[in-house]
Amino acid sequence: MGDTIVSADYSSGIFARTLTENYQPNHVIHLSGTSVWGGIRDYAVDYPEVAVVSDSDIDSASAEEVARAFASGDDAPDIVSAYVNSYTSRDAAGGLAIERLNQKGYCKDLSVYPAVKAYVESLNPVFRDFVTDANGKIFALPISVSGAYAFTINPTVFEEMGLTMDDIPTNFIDLCAFVTRWNDEFVEDYPNFAPLDSTEKYKDRMFRLALREWKGYCQATNRDLHFDDPIFREMVAAIDAMCCDRIEESNKKTSDEESDYKQPLIFTGSWMLNSYYDGDVTFGKDKTPKLIQMTLTKDTAFYLGQGIEIELMFVNPRTTDSDEIGTMLEYVIKNIRDEQKVELVAGCTTPIENPWYEEQRKQDEAELVMYQQAYDEASAEEKNAYKEQLDEFKLYMEQSAESNRYTVSPAYIQRYQDVILPALYIGKPTVLDSTDNTSGLKTLVQRYIDGQITLDQFIREADGKLRMIQLENQ
User: Fold this and answer.
1) Which pLDDT band, with edges at 50, 70 and 90, does 44 fall under?
2) Which of 198, 256, 344, 409 has its CA 20 to 30 A from that of 103?
3) Rounded to the nearest 10 degrees, what angle do helices 202-220 and 441-449 cross at?
C-alpha cells in the first residue's frame, strides 16, 4: 500500500511499517516458519533499523535440506521455527531431526543469550533436557507443545452398558482380550456401539495401533526403533489371538444404512494437551470421559500415547546478526502465550482467568431473568414448555461455569501435573510416519497385514531396513 508494508496475522492483528525512500536497514534477519508473530511484530516496531523478512519455507524440510539452506549465502535463514514431530516432513529418516542438526554443527548455542538461558532453565525437565545437549549447549528454544493423545472412555456407552472400571482394560494385551469379549458377549445386545473408535478390520487396526505404541515405547525409553523384542512379539501374539468376526459382520450390516456410525466405548486418540478446561473431550456435567492409563503389558511401566509434538526455534550458527537475534528471542519469550507456559514452565500452576468472564456472567444472569420472567408470566398451557427452556438454560450455566471463567482451569492444571506431565516424552517421527515410502517399510507393514509374510519375516526385514537408515544418519 503505497510506501507501507502491511502484514496481517489472525492472532496478532495487522502490522504496518512505513518505509522511507531508499530505505537501507542496518541489519536483515531472515525467518522461516515462525508462528510467534506477536514477539516478532513487537521487535520490528521497536527496532525499525532491522529488516525482518519471512522469505523461506524450510520448517518442514529434512535435516539435510535445512543444512543446505543454512549454507546458501546472504539470504540464508537466520532463524527457523519448526515442529520436531512433523508429519509433513520429507525426511525418510524421520522428520526434522533437530538433534542430528545440532550434532553436525548446524544449531547456534543459545546459552550465550541470558534471557534464553534463564527461560530454558525454568522449563519442565522433559523440555529443558531435550534442547540441552551433553555439553550444556542450548541448541533450540521451545515455543509450544501439543499432542499427547490418550485412551479415554465414552461415558455414555459406559453407563448404558452398565460397565464398571473393572471391565475396562488397562494394557494393550488386555485390550485385545476385551475386543474378543465384546465379540462374544456384546455384539447383539449393543448393535449401535463398538469397542473402539473404528469400524475397519480390527486386527489391522490393532496392529497399526501396536506399531504406534511400540514406536512410542522405544522413544520414551531412549531405544532405537526395532521390532525383534519379546514385548512387541507379545503384543502381536495378543492380536493374533483376538476374535472379531462378529464385530466386523455387524459393521457390514450397517454399511448400506444412512449412517454406519457406532458410538465407541474407548477412544484411542483423545488429545490431552491444550484442552485447557478439563483435559479431554467433554460430554457435559459429570460426563467427561475417564482417562485410561494404558500400558503395553501388565509388566511394562510405560503409559501409551504420551508422545508430544514440540515447536522449537533454532538459529543458524553462520548468522552475522547475533546480537539482534538475541534481542529478538527475548521478545519471542515475552510473547509466549500464558496457556503454553502452564505446560512448558516448571511450577506454573496458577489458573488463568478469562478476562471477559464477568461480562459473560452478567449477560447470562440477565438472560436467566428473562427466562424466569417468561416462565412466571406463561399461561398454564405454556408452563411446561417454558419450564423446559428455563431448566435447560440453568443447566447450561452450571455446566459452562468453569469453562467460561477460565482460559486454563484448575482441573486441567491438576490433570496435567498429576497425570500428563510425568508420562510425557518428545515424540519424534520415524519412517513409519514419513509421507513417502523410500525406505520400503510401509510396504512391508502392508504385506504383513495382507498376510503375505510371517511375523518373523516382517521383523527380520524391518529391523534390517531400520539398521540401514540408522547407519546412513550417523
Assistant:
1) confident
2) 344
3) 140
